[in-house]
Amino acid sequence: MKITHYLYNAFLIEDGSTKIAIDPGQNLWIFKLQSLIPQSEWHDITHILITHGDPDHHWQSDRVAKVSGAPVICGKGLTKIENGKTLVIDPRGRELTSWITYENLYPLDVGESVTLNDVKIEAIKTVHGQISIPILGFKIKKQPGLGERTGIGSMGFKITIGNKSIVNLGDTLLLKEWEGLKPDVLMLPIGGLGNNIWTMDIHDAIEAVKLIAPKIVIPCHYNVPFLWIKKMAVTDDQLFKREVEKLGTECVILRMGDSVEL
């Protein structure tokens, strides 16, 4: 199995003929506004997972689905039913004004699962934190919730391929419900700013590792670009790695485009 990371929470998981794209979003740096997962990888993707509707997670999902023909799995909160059709929030729409259809869609609620081409995908509860973005000396704050685009449809996933399991938590705060998941690989955000802003910070992410008890941890969604700011959600991944390894758990740091083979 090969896992490749593309900044934020964008990953490819490859195992034999299986190729899973997690959060095929957009690079938000103004000097590199393009797909996080390269278009050269799109055609043979077999599964697409979307943890929520923010542009760094969702922006390219419909395009990847069209090129690959892969099924799309997301949280039910990313969808609505209108005139008997299940619609998904438009990846590039404004707020909640635009919704589109996906040809092969599987919305899941917490605890629900689906098995597609011998890959089992189970939905795990997550909660997106509030966002606080410094812009020209001001702070723009967004509080996820009903009627709000930020963090819409927040959901984590446990992916089982053969005898290996991977948990990806998207952008989330710390939740006790994860106790005992025990996956082979855990992907979790560590770039929160404390006080429930954005995601877990290092302290909460370490507590999550203790609860979940994975074999390998891959931190993500930190030191990421946003518009003209080259690094937001700044944190010390080497400190996180040292603290995780004190627990007897392996920690793998993946930069943009880096891979690890299991």
UniProtKB/TrEMBL annotation:
One Pfam family cited in the UniProt record for this chain: Lactamase_B_3
Name listed for the protein in its UniProt record: MBL fold metallo-hydrolase
SMART domains for this protein: Lactamase_B
InterPro entries, alphabetized: Metallo-B-lactamas, RibonucZ/Hydroxyglut_hydro, UPF0173_UPF0282_UlaG_hydrolase
Family matches, as PANTHER family: UPF0173 METAL-DEPENDENT HYDROLASE MJ1163-RELATED, UPF0282 PROTEIN MJ1629
SUPFAM superfamilies according to UniProt: Metallo-hydrolase/oxidoreductase (SSF56281)
Metallo-beta-lactamase domain: residues covered: 7-221
Protein source organism: Sulfurovum xiamenensis
Signal peptide span: none
